[in-house]
Every structure is written in C-alpha cells, then in structure tokens.
Amino acid sequence: EIHIKEPIEKEVNPRLLPGELLLCEASTVYKYVQEDGSNRGTYGKLVCTNFKISFLDDDSASDDNEPQFKNKIVGENDITLQCVDQIYGVYDEKKKLLTGQLRKYPEKLIIYCKDLRVFNFCLRYTKEEEVKRIVSGIVHHSQTPKLLKRLFLFSYASAAPNNTDGRNQTVMFETLEDWRDELERTKGNVKYKAVTTNEGYRVSEKLPLYFVVPICISEESILKYEGRGIPIWCWSCHNGAALLKMSAFPKEQDDSTSQMQKAFLDGIYKTISKPPYELLKMDDLSSSLPSLQDIQTAYTRFKQLFLIDNSTDFWATDVKWFSLLESTNWLEIIRRVLKKAIEVAECLEIQQTNVLLIEERATDLCCVISSLVQVMMDSYSRTKSGFQSLIQKEWVIGGHSFLDRCNHLHKSEKEEAPVFLLLLNCVWQLVQQYPPAFEFTETYLTVLSDSLYVPIFSTFFFNSQHQRDTNKSGESLKTQSGPFRFLTVWDWSVQFDPKAQAFLNNPIYAEKPKPDKSQRKTARFKHQRQLSLPLTQAKPSPKRGFFREETDHLIKNILGKRIGKFINSSDEPPNSLREFYDSWHSKPVDYHGLLLPRIDGPEIKVWAQRYLRWIPEAQLHGGGTIATAAKILDLMEEVQSLQVKMDEEHSQAVCGDVHSVPVLRNSARLSSLFPFALLQRQSVKPALPTSTWKDLEDEDDLVKRDDEFVDLSGDML
To answer: Can you give the residue ranges of the Myotubularin phosphatase domain (predicted)?
Structure first.
C-alpha cells in the first residue's frame, strides 16, 4: 500500500549555482520517507546537474519553516555528485548495484551517500523515457571515471563572482613568510629554516613550494633524492624538541642503490644528532600502525551499520549491535592512532627527544599523527583558526592526496582510504572528552567532513600544491581570461549565514586569558611546569586508566581481547608510557596545556552526530548534549542582551568580538542529534524491545553520549 500525496501541479525549478547546468530530469518521481516500511512519501521532480542530484517537491518552492542550520549550497534533498557512494536499482524486489551501461531500468532507485544519507525513489509512475534518461544520467555522472578539469570546481570558479569574505584568519602556508611566522610562533627558528629550494618545483612536484628543514641540511642534500630521506619539520615543542616527518626510500631496490641511500641517511642522522639538536627517535608508521588498506576495509564495514534503508533494518541489527560494531575494527584503529599520538607526545614532552615520523610518502598517516600531536600539545591548534591553519599546513600544502584518497574522479578504488576522516574521528574523541578546550564544536567537525564532497572549494580536491597551481590556468575556457580563483572551505560564509555559523563556535570554550605584562614571565614559567610532568610512580585509580583489568560483563563483550592487543602493540617498554598516562590523568586538566585522550574501552565512542544523524530511531528527543547546550545558550543570549542595554546606556557601540548566539526554540523537543535532526518524528519501537536497546537507553553507550560540559561553578568563572 502506498500513501499517496498528490503530484504537484506548479512547476518547480532547481536553484542553480553559477556554472551549474541542468543535464536531465524526470517528473512524477515518488520519494519514500525512511520510517516504518509504510511507503509514505511525496511526489516531485528528480533532476541531475553537473554539480548535484536534487529532488524537488512542493516544499522546495517555499521558504517557510526553514531550519535554523541551513547549508546555502547543498539542501536537504541535494546530493553532490562526489557525495554519491553507491547506487542500487530494485528489480522485482531484488537490489542490484548499478554501474556503467544498463540494459534494463529499475522500478526503484536507492542512492547511498558518503555522508550516510539514504534516498529511496520509486519510478513506477514516471514515463519510461524519463526513467532511462535520469537513471543513465545519474549513474554516468556520479559513478564513471572523469577528468580533473571536468569537476564542477572549475565550472564554478570560471562563472562565480569573487566576492568572498576577506576576514578569514586561516594561515594558508602558501608563502615563505607564513612558514617563517610559524617557526617564530613555536620558537623553532633557532634550529630550523624555511627553504626556497623547491621554487618552480625543481626538487619534486610532490613537495610544497616552501617547507622547513634543520639548519644543518644543505640544498644539495635536498636535491639529491627529490626530497626523500630529508627530515621535514612539522612543529616544535616549548622545550625545543621537534616533530619531524620523512618520506622513505622505496624498499625494493638493487643493492648498490640501497647502500648509497643508507649511507646518505646515516649522514643526515649524524648531522642532526649533534648539538644543538635533541636526541632523535625514529618511528616507521607503516609498521607500527594499520595499513591504508586495513583502514579502508574497516571503514567500509563500519559505515554499513549506518546506511539504513528503513526502520525494520535498524531493529534487525539492534540485537547484535555490539558484535557488529567490534567486528568492523574501526574503533580499534582510532584507539591505536590515539595511542601512537600519546607515545609521540611522551617523547617530546618528557624525554625531550625529537621524533621523526617515517612513511613511504609522508602524506597519509604522518599527517594524522603530526596533526593529532599538535592538537594535543598546542592550544593554538584547538582554536578554529589554529585548527584550520593546521589542516592547511599538514594536509593541503603538506601534499595529502585528497583527490585519490576520496576517489573524487572514480579512477581507482585501490587508492581510496578515509585518512582525513580518521583524523576528524580522533579529534572528535578529544572534543567530546574535553569540550571547554576547543573553540569549535562537534558540529564544526561534522560540516567539515561533509565539505569533503562539495566541489566548489579547492581545499579537498587536489593531490598536491603543484597539481593545484598547474590547474589554476583558465586558458582552455574562452570565458576565462586569467587564472581560476578557487574558493577555500575556510570561508564558512559561503555555506552558512551568520546565525548558522554560530553553531560552529563552542559557547563554553575556556578562552586563554591574556597575562599582564608585569606577570608575563611568571605565567610562562607556570605554563611550562604544567606541561612537564614528573615521572614519579602514580597510584592508578581503580576506576580509571586503560591498563587495568576490566571486569564489567558488558565491557568484556564489547572489547574481547582488544585491551591485551592494545597494551602489547607498542615496541616501547610500557612502564614509561603508563607512568606518563596515569600521572597526567591524576591531575586536574589544564585546558590550555597538554591534553591526553582517554583511550579505555568505553571511552572510544562512535561519533553519533555524524553517523546517526539521519536515523530517527537513534535520536533522543529533548536529551543528549543539546539539552545542556540549550540552557547555556539561553543564558549567553540573556547576558548579551544585558550587555547591549548597558552599552546603550553608556552610549557605547556594541563590542564587535561578541559571537552571535544561536537561539534554540522548543529546546525540550529538539533531537540529541541537533542541528542536523531538528524536530524528527518519534520512531515506533518493536512490541518487544531487545535487552540491547534497553542498554542503549539506560547506560553510557555508543548512541547516547555523556553530557560532558564543564561545571560552570568552577574555573571557567
């Protein structure tokens, strides 16, 4: 039975961006509402452009009841072509993956998205010719290999006016001055230098134009092996120890070449082992962390848990939720990556040793670990502009292959791996454990992950700075006289208006106080003492620490042998790491100092907002962190209104630095996955709820997260 909503009579046309072209469309398409299998839905028009797939119904024509958190580029019924994961056709109630040329056209179309949305379209009432055009068009434009210049990125850049917000404070690291400023900020300019050796990309097309190396490294050494075997600077700790990365030599080579390269490396190591440099610890990430293939396999399994077609599928998997979650190995990979970052932090902070991360190209796991270490050890990287600058430095300019790893061109699935998503998942663990330490929210991380698939920004659509620079030329387009002017994703005004951008800012961020000049020396000394932890044996609490033996039955079921594997996976003696971890966690948290993630079994959680936001059954109405946030935001709104009244009384202008506060109406009815799930329908549970679902509702678990906001009666005041 189908509950029919009559087809719309008025014409609804898609809103096209500059450079966007309508390629094909089909009328009288029925879009199902994911709910309880009742086949409820609405009629509309399904269109495909060179930018997106879009469903248009009568609600699309009106601006009434618009959500508070609306993306100006991608609507709730829009799917960018790069966001399409897989497309299935339904033939006689059987699902079949659609690729390439089709001999027979389906009666239903199911589109699975990389942001985990699922769209179900019925084509039974659509004209046959329109079905052929729309299905063929969607499959062709979203699934077949394409050339780089065919990306919508170039069409948009050639047609859109360049009127972006010029107040972006993100450091882009495209100039020599940017690198010198970063060296000065971290006090690394005594031992390291920014070099211009790669200007014109004469050393390597994989390296950025400018980068930083130890002062003792000569230009000849950099040129010898196209930058391989050269320690490249990432960041300097307050005590002088530095985090470095290096692109390794290929392993399979003839003996004479290997001997020459070994002699070259020995010379480099001897050079930087002398004073004023600290001792050097090398860490080959290809052997100490999972491979990219393992990461891709784990994530592929993991995301299947959240690509739910209907309510029946959700409840069918509920009984074995924990075993399914554990079998993906995704949370275990997050744990291993966080543990590796703790190891590196311990070397830099306690042992005062330089750490050299080694990887084949130093553009994947090196980026993850170096970024995580900086987020944990440098409070600047926990501000919004600082975090964005970090992504620019380590990932965009650092040469992470976004084009290949995200498979934007559908050229090779072998190169695909969610490395950047892995970083965001790890950062989210820190954000939800220490909310006041971050200027941005989990909503910021969620929309950043969504922006991976929005091809109007150049940030995540090139493999290197060289590829971006060489494709800037617009000579092939007659309408384009000069180089393309690409947008950067860091200009959030392109996607969100000021009210929506307020959801990206953390209202309980414990902003770092600016010390008086007279107290500056004392404050700096205190800051260093808080970072430097004593190596005295701390008696671990029986309720904390990831090295204790777990006895809880539920945790044993979740973890299995995971903790044992986790402890024994390190090559380092566990004692020093254990002391470091337990000693830090036994002290009060300094939100502007070192942060160590809790990596005990239950502490590594599923990023609920990103992965569960489209599933009504997983939402807590009037609960979750949003319940606390709503009260805090109401209080902030009241404080700001009082500030305005005070300023008016004193005839003063309102301070421009005050962040706008999002107003949350009917907060008692908001979903725990707000702002993505607004006022969702209450899902109907089965007549006999499973014991697992009771656990999910009653216990601290993977769906219902703790309300871990700071106690306002404490240090924040």
So the answer is: 173-611
